[in-house]
Amino acid sequence: MMDRRENEMDAGKASKEVFIHLQKGNARPCYLLYGEETFLLDTALKKIIDLILKDADRELNLFYMDGDHEDMQALCQSLMTPPLIAGSKVVVLRNTHIFHSVNTLSELISGIRIRLDTDPDRAAKDFMRFLGIMGWSLDDLRNDGWRSIHDHDWKKALSAEGDKNLLETWLPGMIEHCINLGLKEEAVIEGAEMLGDILKKGLPEGNHLIMTAGVVDKRKKIFKVISEMGAVLHFPQIKYESRKKQALMDTARDILSRAGKTMTPGAWEAMGHRTGFVMDSSVEALEKLITYTGDRSRIEEKDVDAVVGKSKEGNIFDLTNAISEKNLNRALVALKDLFDQGIHHMVIMSMMAKDIRFLAQASILISGGSLSDFDPKMDYGRFQRSVYPVIRTWAEGVGKKEWKGDLIRQNPYVIYQAMKNSCRFSFDVLVGYLEDLVDMDMALKSTARDPRFMLERFLIKVCM
Question: Could you tell me which CATH class the domain 4-100+189-234 is placed in?
Fold first, then answer.
């Protein structure tokens, strides 16, 4: 039996070991695959099934259960039942909730926010599970009821994710989507102890359990049992842009090779801009492009323009850039695209406020007199060499907690753009825009005014 610490490794190393064992015919009784990179997770799941079960045996010896309708007793009975025909039997429990607890709430919410664009219905179901764990109801939160929940309770449940300014960017839209879907709160799943007991006693020869999950509480007994009896593979969200692009390029290269196609550098960058290099969205876009280009072996930028729509992040980026550059036409087009995508107006207002706040902070940095080398016309390379080192020193000298969301903690290119664009506005005007957004927020919550009309009027004021 492998040591538990060896069982839970990052996906790349662990997957290779698991697949080597499987290719030698050494299948473990149970596997847990979890994490936010669902495409990589699903690919590993398919490969494990392929290595355990012959194609001819799948119709009778492969069973799927969905976490949305989780029944631990039925699962345990299936695991203890011998296969219908001689050979191996695999039971797959997808998106299980038995690893959730109050300790996973912050990770659960992070996953929900990641899926808001790519899979909003899945995000909504996960959100209802969050409410079930908390003992809250959707009725507690609707009609701005979430604001009446004390800040301490949000932060206790979600840690840094519980900041109300952050909640403002996604929670109202999430609540509205859950209401529209008619979802109900889900009770916390019981039966993990029963499953743990039968795994420890041993499954019938040839029977295997594979579970997938978004987030897990490693302190739960069932997690420790699976770590000891089987193998755990973690597929965490790829955070660093360079690693994210490399992982996607490796996956894309394999998909394109199998389809007999290549992709121009311009097409690659255009697709990445629209999908944010998110694995699921990018793979979905790639499959559309392969179908769209038909017999053509080369995917070009014009194909991406024709097939792949902009992501929410892309349109918000366009909107905030247009505000910074005082480009009214571009701002109105980006706003229309966001509304057409169903993005909640509170999310749009929050992102606009963040961008204007960065411009105001950049104005303060420039007027402070300590950045005499800064010139709005300087290129980014010169900024990195002569100005950013001073800002980085400031950032290292102040408390991380207090300054976490402020401009000096951002990527240097974000700081460069904010400082360059802030010269188009006076500090007092920027503060006035923030006050306008606060007034708009109050008006939208207390009246039946049209949010789209109000935002359009605001953009006209800012960009004219």
Answer: alpha beta
pLDDT tens-digit series, residues 8-30: 445 556 677 888 888 888 899 99
- d(Cα 196, Cα 191) in Å, to the nearest integer? 9
Among candidates 322, 317, 315, which has minimal Cα distance to 462? 322
Topology adopted by domain 241-307: Helicase, Ruva Protein; domain 3 (1.10.8)
What the block records as the tokens of 53 is 């079960």
Summarised one tens digit per residue, pLDDT across range 424-462 is 889 999 999 999 999 888 888 777 778 888 999 999 998
CA distances from 251 to 14, 34, 68, 279, 283 (A): 18, 19, 29, 9, 8
Instruction: List alpha helices for 24-170, DSSP H.
Output: 38-52, 58-61, 72-80, 105-118, 120-134, 138-141, 151-158, 164-167
Q: What is the DSSP string of 361-373?
A: HHHHHHHTSS-TT
Q: Coil, strand or helix: which one is 238?
A: coil
| CATH 1.10.8.60 residue window(s) in the chain | 241-307
CATH 3.40.50.300 intervals, the chain = 4-100+189-234
- CA dihedral angle for residue 395, residue 401, residue 402, residue 405, rounded to 10 degrees: 70
> Which of 40, 36, 49 is CA-nearest to residue 12?
40
Q: What is the dihedral of CA 134, 138, 141, 144, to 10 degrees?
A: 170
Distance between CA atoms of residues 210 and 214, nearest Å: 14
Q: CA nearest 403: which of 367, 349, 357?
A: 357
CB 226 within 8 A of CB 7: no
CATH 1.20.272.10 positions along the chain are 312-463
Q: Do the beta carbons of residue 223 and residue 31 sit within 8 Å?
A: no
**Could you tell me which CATH number the domain at 312-463 has?**
1.20.272.10
